[in-house]
Amino acid sequence: xxxxxxxxxxxxxxxxxxxxxxxxxxxxxxxxxxxxxxxxxxxxxxxxxxxxxxxxxxxxxxxxxxxxxxxxxxxxxxxxxxxxxxxxxxxxxxxxxxxxxxxxxxxxxxxxxxxxxxxxxxxxxxxxxxxxxxxxxxxxxxxxxxxxxxxxxxxxxxxxxxxxxxxxxxxxxxxxxxxxxxxxxxxxxxxxxxxxxxxxxxxxxxxxxxxxxxxxxxxxxxxxxxxxxxxxxxxxxxxxxxxxxxxxxxxxxxxxxxxxxxxxxxxxxxxxxxxxxxxxxxxxxxxxxxxxxxxxxxxxxxxxxxxxxxxxxxxxxxxxxxxxxxxxxxxxxxxxxxxxxxxxxxxxxxxxxxxxxxxxxxxxxxxxxxxxxxxxxxxxxxxxxxxxxxxxxxxxxxxxxxxxxxxxxxxxxxxxxxxxxxxxxxxxxxxxxxxxxxxxxxxxxxxxxxxxxxxxxxxxxxxxxxxxxxxxxxxxxxxxxxxxxxxxxxxxxxxxxxxxxxxxxxxxxxxxxxxxxxxxxxxxxxxxxxxxxxxxxxxxxxxxxxxxxxxxxxxxxxxxxxxxxxxxxxxxxxxxxxxxxxxxxxxxxxxxxxxxxxxxxxxxxxxxxxxxxxxxxxxxxxxxxxxxxxxxxxxxxxxxxxxxxxxxxxxxxxxxxxxxxxxxxxxxxxxxxxxxxxxxxxxxxxxxxxxxxxxxxxxxxxxxxxxxxxxxxxxxxxxxxxxxxxxxxxxxxxxxxxxxxxxxxxxxxxxxxxxxxxxxxxxxxxxxxxxxxxxxxxxxxxxxxxxxxxxxxxxxxxxxxxxxxxxxxxxxxxxxxxxxxxxxxxxxxxxxxxxxxxxxxxxxxxxxxxxxxxxxxxxxxx
Length: 862
Prior knowledge:
Layout: H1 28-62, H2 65-80, H3 90-96, H4 100-104, H5 110-113, H6 121-142, H7 144-171, H8 175-180, H9 189-200, H10 205-225, H11 229-248, H12 262-284, H13 297-300, H14 307-316, H15 318-330, H16 341-354, H17 358-380, H18 390-409, H19 422-447, E1 452-453, H20 458-463, H21 465-469, E2 483-484, H22 487-513, H23 521-534, E3 549-552, E4 558-565, E5 568-571, E6 576-577, H24 579-582, H25 584-595, E7 599-605, H26 607-614, E8 619-630, H27 642-653, E9 657-661, H28 668-685, E10 706-711, E11 717-728, E12 731-742, H29 750-765, E13 769-776, H30 788-804, H31 806-813, E14 819-827, H32 833-844, H33 850-861
Parallel strand pairs: 5-7, 12-13
Antiparallel strand pairs: 1-2, 3-4, 4-5, 4-6, 7-14, 8-13, 8-14, 9-10, 10-11, 11-12
């Protein structure tokens, strides 16, 4: 099965029997033989996995004959015409390339013939990779005939539309389009981008959004920075593909168009920042890049000075000549990395934005504002731009302005803080690196003052610090400073700034990767140990989740997990620890809260804890219903288990099997499918995923949480469930269901199949019970006469049913013939109920945006 369900492998003694305390130590030769055998087993295992991977790839390609045929035709035509090396010859390009000159000459066939050649060897390789990525998926989801039609028609329409756009820009006098109007292009990349755009409409919501962003960003970035005719045609082909995909999708279920979840939105913003950072780098690889944004690429990605620029500087003065040679000299050393300072910083910040960090957002905003300031100084100093330079000035300011607008518009997505103590350590590292680099430059530079021009003094070297830490392109903005001529002075000038930025960016990356919800890690570890040793209620494992704080009684035998919202100390489930100390913990925690001015509220607690609160004079109300299935003697026989038996039988007939794993150790392809199913579920609702007592994707990443997935023979995950342990005396005696998701188009009975399979497994392992967890705002018991508050909660559950389906979930769980255990909220003061309600709403929906709130109200009122 997997590592979770296997026991230790017994070792062997010298004679092959079990090794005992009295067995002699193995001889070195014997140890070497054992090591060789193990290495051979590992090699065989790796070989088998590699073979399985290659076989899976071969099966995928074999199922895509159109893709293989296209690859073969492209390679054969290229080889037959000698185009695989440097692309088609000029004479051949004039006959088969598409563009305004070809269309004006009446070569109407070029939108089709341009499909069969690529302009260079690198282009052939990139086209083959793109075809292998898009082709098989398109054949599977669109069909072969439709895939071929979209590829050819999308290429023809995209190349013609791109040529028309260039012609229109040329007539309007736009210099960039006029510069590419005479170009011809070859290669099927326009058709492949059109095919990818059509494919967006056939994917699930998360992948629809990601692929659509990629197919828009990549050709748009190439157009803005590289600016060749083929880049424009790719952009046009994407627009054609998106429109064609919408037409083909008519009458079919459409992916949900709701705003992305927080994690997805952060990834999209980070991708936009990376695209803005890498655009100039990509443009630097192309000859004659002429895109509209490429006019300021020298300010974003510094380049060596041209010989005529050096000559002009030397004609002005000796000092300016030395300065120009100093800038040129940097590009012959590792200091050339300073030329890409802005892109490198934005890529690092994109990693922080992907993680939702407030600090990364603030630094990114400050970086864009600083860049706008530097660009303004560059263009306006020492004299303002003239009329001919206004267009270049606007183009230079456009990208940072758009990036800044995106960051400001999505600021609510980035509210997470760094891990405890990470911010001071980061400030110390960056500040220390800045101080050390500055001190080394000024102090050591003063010691070798004669190796600068003019002679260095501490004040002059201090004036040169801005040039030390800025990219070479902004060297002219720095005040006049001494220029290093030789020896140690050159080393200081080259490496002090580089060393600072290397340390600063490394410290940022490290701080971002250590980001976490602020919590007391020692208390969390202590609470987990107490929970494992003594146990708690069926929901007590949720106390190990991020975001909780912990209170311990005086003896350290009981603990309460809580979080504070608006002065309300809201607990997560029962107190846990020694059984005799749990009820006493209610009063102890109440005193702890009273001393701090908080109002305690025990949420989702058992009848025993409710009784302890009643003895303190508190009020209580039922907020959920726990469903518990006894496992000893469990057998799915009889009429009442018919639905469960049907799900098990159908799964067997369809080749669906249940596999256990831990999320952290799961293969990447399975983890990606789990994330896809989860994001699809969240986006389908168009509302944020609830938290607090309801786990999400983040709570799967715990080694004690067992995940059960339903997979078919093609390794497609149809659904999954996660199970949290309920401990007693250090061992699990029961398991609680937390995370349950199913693929929209998957096996319909997958949830019944997974829960039944888990129950059978846990029963065989000796567990006493299985909890299907509590359904919030849903209950089946009606023995007690409901109070006004209880009727209000029942009404709230009824209103939320169309959105979150808690009552339907409770009805689903009834298929497993559970025992119903009520769960309560206990609180000391009815006057605090409005604040308690707000705290519960904040705990369950911590990231609810105003727009989502309006959408929630509309769905509830509709």
